[in-house]
Amino acid sequence: IQLIVYSEIQDAEADEPDVAILFADLSELQWKSAEFEKSLLAIDRAIELKPNYAPFWDQRATVLLESSRLEEAIASLRLAYEIDPDFQNLKLKLAMLCLAAGKLSDGRAYAMEAFQSSNWVGYELSTMTTWIAATCASLSLDPAGALQIIADRQFDQEYQLDPKSTPLSTYFAFLSSGLQADIELVNGNLSGAAVAIGAMLELKPYHA
Predict the structure, then answer these.
(1) Is the model's pTM score more than 0.85?
(2) What is the distance between the alpha carbons of residues 173 and 181, in angstroms, rounded to a whole number?
(3) Is the distance from CB of 9 to CB of 22 less than 8 angstroms?
């Protein structure tokens, strides 16, 4: 398949807009074949031809992550975000990668923005973004802020689209108790941590 794409690139005129798409297609094929350096070269060529196209920068970040180049991946996603902040899962991706990189204030901000976006409606998305924001706050030594993030979400029932799933209020109470347990342990309060863990076990938001 790569040979076919190579042939299509050679046959196309250099100034044709489809050439950039062909390079992106080639990059994806090489990525799937674990040829990450070649994949990066191909997507960089696509970006050179069409620099203001968010999907290419997003694809570049995906390739970079395969080589554990986290900082460069974040930089590529930031560029995609500048071009089109509403493109697919950019806010969540940035929140997750910033958390992984220890960029806690940025991770918290992206997670909160993802939650508040009109495109982000759903049980999994609301809980995930809340968890990331609260975790970033907790690791930033802002336990009160972390607990407040969770508290603000506990009764936000408009995101409860599936009546068969665990109510969000129960899930966030579980999340809050877990975070409280972490805070108590950091402070050396074992009895307080035990109480919080007990509350978690009573809630059981997940079905075994």
Answers:
(1) no
(2) 12
(3) yes
